[in-house]
TrEMBL record:
Name listed for the protein in its UniProt record: Hemerythrin-like domain-containing protein
Any coiled-coil regions, as ranges: none
Any Pfam family the entry gives: Hemerythrin
Species per Swiss-Prot/TrEMBL record: Bdellovibrio bacteriovorus
Annotated signal peptide: none
Residue intervals of the Hemerythrin-like domain: 18-132
Amino acid sequence: MSKKQTKISSGKSSELDIINMILEDHKPLKELIEVMKDSEKELEERQEAFAQFAPLLISHAKPEEQSLYRYMKGDEELREGGFEGDVEHQLADQMVEEIMRTDDDDLWSARVKVLAELVEHHIEEEEEELLPDFKKHSESSDREKLGQLFLELKTKILERGGMDAPHERESHARH
């Protein structure tokens, strides 16, 4: 699919449609990505952005994997996109772990910028290609069921502070 493909719009579909939920989740992530990518910003401001970004990313990614991507991997037309999303999420998880263990400010800044660019690319691809394909190959009732599952999974993660894996519970911020 071309980069020029129209982004999916929320239109008249239900608030429980998983597509709408994902698009809403992307908004704060995009704002924080801009701060994290900006090398001109003070280190402290970028650290604060990352401290907010990491739990938002985890509370979005894990439910997306267990709902949307799982559904996609079961559909011949969507299968590859589901696996690609999983792989990109794994890379982002690894980057978050590395950033949390990084003490050197310059290395920390480089890793945060790479994470921000990786997630930015993932969001753009998801909004421009993956979600429109998913919408084309799914029924609104399936999207609403997946939205409900997404919401339930996300709520559970948020109740645990936004972080889901054991290594992420140890520390939420670098300093």
